[in-house]
Amino acid sequence: MRTGLAITMVLGSALGAAGAASAADVAAPSRVAAVTVFPAGAAITRTAKIKIDKGDHTIVFADLPAQAIASSIRVEGKGTGKLDIGSVDTKRVSVPRVDALNAETERRKIEVEIEKLRDQRLVFEGQAQAAETQKALIQNLTQLPTRPAPMLGQTGGGENWPAVLALIASSTAEAQRANLEAQVNIRETDRKIRDLEGKLANVAPNRDERTEVKVFVSAAAPLEADMVVRYQVSNASWSPLYDARLATGSKAVAPKLELVRRASITQRTGEAWTDVAIELSTTRPTSSAAAPELMSVIVDFEPEIKPKPAAAPLASGLGARRDAIGEIAGGAMEDAEADLPRARTMAKAVAAQEVKAAVVNAPFQAIFQVPGKLSVEPTGEAKRVQLTSDSLEPALSVRAVPKADQKAYLYAKLALPKGSPLLPGPVSLFRDGTFVGTGRVPLLSPGEEHEMGFGADDLVRVKYAVSDEKKGETGLISSSPPPEAIMSPSDVPPIESAASMRPKV
Q1: Counting beta carbons within 10 angstroms of the beta carbon of residue 150, is it exposed (0 to 12), middle (13 to 18) or buried (19 or more)?
Q2: Distance CA 288, CA 293 (A)
Q3: E strand residue ranges, 268-394
Q4: Which of 104, 195, 270, 336 is a good FRET partner for 315, with 20 to 30 A between their CA atoms?
Q5: Dihedral over Cα of 355, 357, 360, 363: its sign
């Protein structure tokens, strides 16, 4: 009987231990491995390596940021054995910061220093009290001369007052000095304690908001798994920047234009991207994915409403009543039949008035892979990287509007290379190595032509003057001639004049 009871207890303990092992949580510390940044938002990929025993387990990812969009979280995995992934639960939690352990160690050191300083303060307080006691005793010595003289037959008197006075003077100075030193030490100790208490408050353990992901898995055998968690965040973006460097060339050298494409990356997602592979995409995941549908609109004439028949006079007898009821019912049916087409028309008109909002997007997309590994802190500070550099052969021209500005401006007409498009963004303009200003690049598709202005050309002088103008009774009867353009002897691109012409009357 005892043997059976022992076996039952052992089996129960084993089953309980197995159940506890199967339901155990497996912590999975993960790191950001790759990031795809969109013009608005980003897609994050985290990886983790874990070891799982046989049975059912719950893998816990506790390091996702609070801004992770719960509906976008996806979990994948590859293992050395069969691993079945069940449900995935997410919730917002408050967890200690990553440096909580270091902060706790630092707090302990500061607390020990404060405790030592408080013990020293007690020692200094004891020294100050001893000095005060010594001063009180010395004060009693000063009362010796005021004591009454001894009576006849009593011994006493004959004190060495110079020695007593010297002892009082030296002892008083020593006690005062000891008391002063103790008070200074107490004040200095109090200052150190206040400084350490302020430092202790600064290293108090803080907690961060995080998104906790629990993945319920089942392993057929002990295995090692590489888990991947993908999710999206909103507070991240990138914007394009451009450098246009024009070399005007000469008679023997053709002009060249180097177009450098850069990107400015910012993020405030609550997690640091440290040494990760970053891709920049022109797609907008938050925009509409399908074209809007146009609803049909039916235009029809409103049907003519028939007048209602006049009420019949009251008649006596059952037959008259039946006739009256029949006429009323017939009139009601006619009214219902007359109103039915109008009701259908009105219902169709209401359905046709439904309007769906649509977002206009660029009809193309591109992905730029930033070379190497990149680190972007979650402080909102911009991280600028270079993407591509294209060498183009522009066509130079000089454009002038003499009536508005008597300067000639140099323009470079270029055709974009095939490949990725140019998104709207600011451009810094350089002419022969000199910065001449800034501009803005519009949305341009591959192969599209575009003109860029590179500032005033000092080699071209433009003078605006009206050489002859005749007037009549009805107004101006002749137009102004084109403006006079004076060119320097050096090689200058052709001039395009934008002088306005007045119509003849």
Answers
A1: exposed
A2: 12
A3: 273-281, 367-369, 374-376, 383-392
A4: 336
A5: negative
Cα–Cα distance for residue pair 496/398, rounded to 1 Å: 6
Pick the CATH number of 21-97+208-234 from 1.20.58, 2.60.40, 1.10.357, 1.25.40: 2.60.40
Backbone phi, psi, residue 18, to 5°: -65, -40
Strands 273-281 vs 31-37: parallel, antiparallel or unpaired: parallel
Tens of pLDDT along 279-320? 988 887 765 667 778 888 888 777 788 887 766 554 444 454
**40, 308, 92: which is closest to 210 by C-alpha?**
92
CA atoms of 97 and 84, how far apart (whole Å): 32
**Alpha-carbon span 77 to 50, nearest angstrom:** 10
On the question of pLDDT at 255 being above 50, the answer is yes
Parallel/antiparallel/unpaired status of strands 495-497 and 395-401:
parallel
Burial of 400 (0-12, 13-18, 19+ CB in 10 A): buried
Would residue 55 be called left, alpha or beta, if left means φ above 0 and alpha means ψ between -120 and 50 degrees? left
